[in-house]
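FORM 12-B: Structure-to-Sequence Request
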């Protein structure tokens, strides 16, 4: 199997779960721990959310972590400007590609999406940013349009496409085939982003890797919008134990990271404690 890189979105998609709102200190600590665990990339948040989010992202960027730090942006120049104000030089631009999202969420057309995709990616690239592009709701979109979207992103200067199963409607067989066919049709590097609405986020992620996805989107403890995202811990263990494909994460620190995120997300009862865990051990 190919080399696999983790793009962790605990600080962005993970925080979109109901009842979760990390404070700045928690986000910085989680970012440090993700880096120590060994993830390749950390999606640090959404600068367009406001000043407080921008300050936290700026602090994370200033930590000098080994992991690449990226910010999440809508298909808007204003969002890219907010990321630039944080000091970001790696931005993720997300846009709907299914007709239902384009029509009812954006109230726009496919043509509008492609034209604005080029504008936003060009804008970011001209200002020295590396760009990842996300195909939101790709699993419910027409394949030919997803391919055209991927090619438009590539030609504008994006380094890869995030194929998002936004509503978690894929199964492992279709996940593998969609990724495989998209790579064969476009040659674009694929990151796979799974949601767990039908309990198959981990299985679909493993299948997408079989289809050729070299990057996988995860969250710690599988937290995320609605039923959550693919769990970093599950994916890592499955790759190593089922496929003999270790991805270089520090498994001894994974329980500590899991506990930190669970506490920050208010997902632990008062009786669930780790008496041996001290702040000096994790900072």
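FORM 12-B RESPONSE
SEQUENCE OUT:
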């Amino acid at each position: 199997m190919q080399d696999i890189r983790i793009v962790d979105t605990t600080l962005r998609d993970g925080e979109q779960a109901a009842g979760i709102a990390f404070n700045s200190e928690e986000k910085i600590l989680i970012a440090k721990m993700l880096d120590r665990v060994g993830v390749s990339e950390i999606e640090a948040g959404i600068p367009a959310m406001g000043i407080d989010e921008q300050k936290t992202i700026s602090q994370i960027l200033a930590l000098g972590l080994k992991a690449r730090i990226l910010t999440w942006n809508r298909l808007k120049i204003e969002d890219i400007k907010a990321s630039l104000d944080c000091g970001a030089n790696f931005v993720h631009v997300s846009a709907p590609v299914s007709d239902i999202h384009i029509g009812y969420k954006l109230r726009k057309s496919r043509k509008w999406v492609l034209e604005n995709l080029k504008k936003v990616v060009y804008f970011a690239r001209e200002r020295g940013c590396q760009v990842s592009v996300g195909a939101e709701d790709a699993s419910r979109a027409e394949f030919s349009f997803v391919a055209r979207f991927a090619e438009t992103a590539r030609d504008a200067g994006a380094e890869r496409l995030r194929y998002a199963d936004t509503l978690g409607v894929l199964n492992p067989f279709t996940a593998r085939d969609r990724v495989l066919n998209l790579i064969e049709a476009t040659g674009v590097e694929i990151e796979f982003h799974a949601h767990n609405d039908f309990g198959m986020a981990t299985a679909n992620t493993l299948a997408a890797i079989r289809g050729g996805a070299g990057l996988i989107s995860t969250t710690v403890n599988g937290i995320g919008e609605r039923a959550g995202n693919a769990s970093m811990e599950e994916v890592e263990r499955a790759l190593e134990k089922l496929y003999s494909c270790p991805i270089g994460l520090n498994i001894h620190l994974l329980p500590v990271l899991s506990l930190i995120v669970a506490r920050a997300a208010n997902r632990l009862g008062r009786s669930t404690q780790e008496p041996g865990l001290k702040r000096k051990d994790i900072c």
